[in-house]
Amino acid sequence: MSLISVEEALGRLIAGASPVERMERLALATAGGRVLASTLSARLTQPPFDNSAMDGYALKADDVAEIGSKLSVIGESAAGRGFAGMVRRGEAVRIFTGAPVPDGADAVLLQEDAVRLGGGIIESRFLVARGRHIRPRGQDFVEGEDVLPVGSVLDAGNLTVAAAMNHPTVDVVAKPLVAIIATGDELVAVGGAPGPHQIIASSMFGVCHIAREAGADVMDFGIIRDDREAIEAAVAKARAAGADIIVTLGGASVGDHDLVQAALVAAGMQLDFWRIAMRPGKPLMVGRLGDTSVLGLPGNPVSSMVCALLFLEPLIAHVGRRPARQRLAAAVTATALAANDHRQDYLRAGLRRREDGLLEALSYGKQDSSQMKIFARSDCLIVRPPRAEPVEAGTRCQVLVLRER
To answer: Fewer Cβ atoms within 10 Å of its own Cβ: the N or the C terminal residue of the chain?
Structure first.
């Protein structure tokens, strides 16, 4: 099987994945960040009455057609406690922000534009037009109006309007369930004592974090030994739990000790592809197991992190019916970059913002995928297209942002 491009790989991965159809009902107070599964319509009209946008005096605009007009103040309207009477010619009502506009009034004169003369009389120092500083009933929304469509992410603004529409609960898309299966006889759990030819398993911690940040629930199956029956049992358990996505770490190639692909094919997986023209992360496997998407990441920690950001994060967004995070940004290189070969390269780099506002990416000299500490301190990955020509410092480039600067 020949190498395919990153763009083609991502397109095929997303095209073959099924969005979640499940939904759950949550209290609005716990629904932050979730995706609406049904349209939210207003249960009431907002505002429910004409109200004042400012502190001042409610009156008839015709009564202050000239500066120096005098009016009698006949009462007060406050938020939650309106004025019950009628405003007639030559009268005004002291009013506060959010308070109901009394019957008969059609404008609000700001308090700083009126002078109190004593004896309940005010004198205007400004002209106001009809409707000035009045928020009309239903200006925001009216009862029955569709306000938040399906697919809306419940951010701060949408949570606030949902509350204003009097929705104590909301139907949201269920989080995709991601099962993560790490394989390898060479792996030892964190806190364990590695043998002479073993290493501490670390990739699953970063991959689990990326999955959760992308909006998924995660089942971590721990370390599965290099045994086909053990791998098949873990896959069966993930499917029985209803996993929408199965992620494997390591063993996705076709070497004598790489058993994951064979175990998945034996379980019924339809393999799409497993080699991508990228560095790091060439041996990435994609397939379908019934309704479940399968993504086989490299076992190398840096490779697994890069591939998780490029493929798992957008896959979870698609399956979870939410907008994909946009990590790509324009930048300039701080150093010269060598020519590239046939694979798309992702160079670990620092990132800073220059005085002119442009992002500047400083490629770290060592790019070996075994060096995790360099990835940990990187702010971005410089994207080098296949067969890119060498460039000098200051050249425009594209970066995949890992953390904002």
So the answer is: N
